Amino acid sequence: MYSKEESAALRKLFWTSFGKSFPRKWLLYNTKIKDFSFKFVADKKQALVCLDIESFDRTKNELLFDQVLELKSNLTEDYLPDVIFDELYLLESGKIIHRIYVKYNGEFNIHNKNTWQGAFLFFNEAMHQFEEFYEDFEDFIKQAIY
Fold first, then answer.
1. How high is the pLDDT of residue 2?
2. What are the residue boundaries of the DUF4268 domain, all occurrences included (predicted)?
3. CATH class of 4-142
4. CA-to-CA distance for 90 and 62, rounded, in angstroms?
């Protein structure tokens, strides 16, 4: 069991180490669609690469989720075969969002440095594939709301 300070220091070291291992500028929040962003998630149980749709405008959320859902076969066949579409993903905060994500299948715990390298490799590859997908279909996705 780690104290809050030790846990925070490990999380900071994890993200710093990832950034040094794969130094590049990720797309993340720069999709040019408000509340439509790519994220890395790492905690004591799992590592995920996500596309989160989390506007307060439910109609906008539905339109964007449905638009990406129309591309599901493209996404699974050409980029991320294990992608999961979750229309009602519950965040720890209690907020429900639309999340499209891939999960790292190896052993992972952000408190265990021995599990980091596999997650780093997964993050790099999965986010690269998500970014390629978005680059290829950005105009189609934006049609849902513009």
1. 86
2. 10-136
3. alpha beta
4. 16
**Interval 97-135: pLDDT, tens:** 999 999 999 999 999 999 999 999 999 999 999 999 999
Q: Exposed, middle or buried, 30 (CB in 10 Å: 0-12/13-18/19+)?
A: exposed
Domain map (residue ranges) of the chain: 4-142
Percent helix, strand, coil in the chain, to 5, is 45, 20, 35
What is d(CA 146, CA 139) in angstroms, rounded to the nearest whole number?
10
pLDDT digits (tens, 9 = 90+) for 31-75: 999 999 999 999 999 999 999 999 999 999 999 999 999 999 999
Instruction: Give the tokens for residue 109.
Output: 């715990």
What b/e string do you get for 67-97 counting C-beta neighbours within 10 Å, with b at 16 or more?
A: bbeebeeebeeebbeebebeeebeeeeeeeb
Structure tokens at 44: 């004591």
Tens digit of each residue's pLDDT (9 = 90 or more) over 127-138: 999 999 999 999
